[in-house]
Amino acid sequence: MPKKGPLTAEELFEPPEFTKKQKDPDVVMQGPYHCHCTYKDFPEQKGNFFQVGGELFAANNGYFPVSKQAIEGYFQHLVQQTGDQRIALHRVAQYLDLYVNDEIIDMLLSAPDGVITVGKMASRARMKKYIGKTYLDTMLEGNSPIVELNHKEDEEPEEEKPDPRGEELFGLGYNPREYKILLKHYDMLKKQYPNVDHLQETAIRDQCTTKLMQIEARNDPDTYAKMTKLYQEALRNGPLSTLGDNADMTDEKACFGVWRAQIEQYCPADIYLNEKLYDDVDSLKEYFERFILRPIINFFSGRRKLDDEYSLTPEEMSDGQQ
């Protein structure tokens, strides 16, 4: 007799019987794969659909059933409709059940090339430190923007006051929203370039105002392209060009700074400096000692230390010859 009432969470996500009969239980759907938006067929899911990993897409090999091309087009539609790339990114992340936070979106919005895509967001959402998280975690952590539309004419929104820190750094003349944009970009650049002199500090503030003008000009293609070019040229040729990702790669100190800045994007320093957490996690240290260091020491010292696992003692060799 079938069970009455709704299924429990455990019953809902229990793999169906037909998946248990597959030789490879991870492969449920078979090609060609159909885009639920454009009706276009694809020979394989990898490269054509976003792999998101949410429970609701488990029977589709973990892929969202709308093609990447259609999702990117929908994202641009959301940007035009809302006028806010941050809200548009969150809306797409909700559909794809991807984990996002302010750090991920700020990094996308401040990209030097000015190009923002769903693919970039999806790749950052799948980094190791976010494995297993979905948009539910975004909501639980308070990173999901809640937009409330109030149509009551008799209620006027409370006037927002400018941030005093913004007035101190950038002077008077901006509204509270503009100060927020300036300060957010300023904090991002200061994190990327922590040790700067007076000239470089001024350059950072100039970059913030350029970024603000770029954002404000998003509906004017010509002005937006001009501001984007100005921002990129200032990073490449201005006072900040000797620091971080824009450093001259022929300079050893600057080159090291580039490596450090790139590593910091994927794993903060306070994490990868934890030696116990990452102590020879892939056994490279053990491999080096056994198969590189041991033979070199044997060669120069004349000793004949054998590997404990892949070698035979003289007694074992003599036993095998009998």
**Helix residue percentage:** 40-55%
Structural class: mainly alpha
Count of DSSP helices? 15
Order of helices and strands: HHEEEEHHHHHHHHHHHHH
Stretches with pLDDT under 50, minimum 5 residues: 147-153, 246-250
The spatial strand order of the largest sheet comes to 1-2
Sheet having the most strands: 2 strands, antiparallel
Rg of Cα set: 27 Å
Averaged pLDDT, please?
Answer: 77
Number of strands: 4
Calculate the terminal CA-CA distance, rounded to whole Å.
70 Å
Beta-strand percent range: under 5%
Shape, per Cα inertia axes: extended
Overall domain count: 3
Structure description:
Strand 1 and strand 2 form a beta hairpin. The strands form two sheets. The chain has a two-stranded antiparallel sheet. Strands 3-4 form a two-stranded antiparallel sheet. Helix 8 crosses helix 9, helix 9 crosses helix 10 (198-216) and helix 10 (198-216) packs antiparallel against helix 11. It starts with 8 loop residues before the first helix and ends with a helix. It folds into three domains: 22-146, no CATH class; 164-246, no CATH class; 280-312, no CATH class. Residues 147-153 and 246-250 have low confidence and may be disordered. The protein has helices spanning 9-12, 17-20, 68-82, 85-96, 102-109, 118-125, 135-140, 164-170, 176-192, 198-216, 221-237, 252-266, 269-272, 284-301, 314-321; strands at 33-34, 41-42, 49-51, 63-67. The protein has 322 residues and is mostly helical. The chain has 15 helices and four strands. The radius of gyration is 27 Å and the shape is extended.
